[in-house]
Amino acid sequence: MSSEEFEKLHEAYGAVSAELGSRCQQMAGRSGDQKRFLREIDEKVEEANEILDGMEKELRNAPSSFRNQMNIKIRSYRKDVIKLQRDARNANTGYGAHSDFKYTVHGAENEQSSHLSSQRALLLQGTDSLARASQSVDRSQRIAAETDQIGSEIIEELGEQREQLERSKDRLINTGENLSRSRKILRAMSRRIMTNKLLLGIIILLEVAILGTVVYLKFFH
Fold first, then answer.
1. 54 and 77 in contact (C-beta within 8 Å)?
2. Contact by Cβ (8 Å): 21, 49
3. Is the overall model pTM greater than 0.70, yes or no?
4. What is the pLDDT along the chain (221 residues), one digit of tens a residue?
């Protein structure tokens, strides 16, 4: 809802309503050319109804409490317009009763003025409510934008941490493979050491046997 557009329509209706009342007074105070006044009144009634239709259209997106109050006022305005048109037609058929009609027009104008004052107060109240709602929406949008930015940063950090974990996992896998190769090398070296020790023992035994044989042959034979 555009509060500025609604207020313009409301002011336009006030002007048309005042002009309609003036035409009715002029018609009630003159005996000649009643058809012209009646035609002008019908045109003003049509214009007033078009403005009221526009006001109802502007109220469709307004807060429900404000919309309900204004719709009641608009229905009251429509009744006033219909009453003025009906009284004008009745005055056209019987000019002798123009004093009663004039009193009715003045009463309708006073009631209309009271409605306009109440309407303006309600309109200002609705405008304030819309302004506060707009500020609340702006704050919500800022909070949503900040939350979205924080979420994006967290996702980015999680992505970096995931890459670090994947690199650490790759390093652990490589370390495990290196340890496996190292164990295989150590086992091979251990087997070679045992083989070398065994060969060394055999060589020592052979040397001792040869030495014993030489001593025996030299001293005991």
1. no
2. no
3. no
4. 556 777 777 787 778 777 777 777 776 655 556 677 677 777 878 888 888 787 777 777 667 767 777 777 778 778 878 887 777 777 655 544 444 444 444 445 555 555 565 666 667 666 767 777 778 788 888 898 888 889 889 999 998 999 999 999 989 998 888 888 889 999 999 999 999 999 999 999 998 989 888 888 887 76
Note whether 26 and 37 are within 8 A (CB). Answer: yes
- CA-to-CA dists, residue 131 to 66, 69, 126, 127, 136, angstroms: 13, 18, 9, 6, 9
Contact at 8 Å (CB) between 91 and 27?
Answer: yes
